[in-house]
Specification:
about 130 residues; alpha+beta; about 25% helix; about 50% strand; Nuclear Transport Factor 2, Chain: A
């Protein structure tokens, strides 16, 4: 795997999240995915069930993620990607906000494909842009 391949997979995963594409998300994640994220309130989440809930919830408006300052470390059949993720939201009534997260994702080769096996996401802050 090359750094560019990891970047492409990571981008596909973030696009799937932003677009509510559960099928692609599940294809890119290992079924035993683990995560620490703000929505879990300090708990380690295991499996995809917790995340599927957010895909089934209706959302209004648009969302777009941008990756800033990515750092990719290749370790044989494992890749670690660390970056700042900016999530821009526009609600159906035209309100804008941007939320910044520190995010680390671990990708591992399973069989012939690469899967996201763990991530850690911390909220840095939110800016309302009315």
């Amino acid at each position: 795997m090359t750094s560019s391949t990891v970047e492409t997979l990571n981008r596909q995963l973030l696009d799937a999240i932003d677009n509510g594409d559960l099928e692609t998300y599940c294809e890119l994640c290992d079924p035993s995915l683990t995560a620490f994220e703000p929505e879990a309130v300090g708990n380690l989440v295991e499996g995809l069930d917790f995340h599927e809930t957010y895909f089934s919830s209706p959302t209004s408006g648009k969302r777009k993620s941008s990756v800033r300052a990515p750092h990719i470390r290749l370790l044989g059949d494992t890749a670690v990607v660390a970056y700042v993720r900016l999530v821009q939201n526009t609600t159906s009534d035209g309100q804008h906000s941007t939320t910044a997260f520190e995010e680390t994702r671990i990708w591992h080769k399973t069989g012939d494909s690469w899967k996201n096996v763990h991530f850690h996401r911390s909220n840095i802050g939110k800016i309302e842009l009315g």
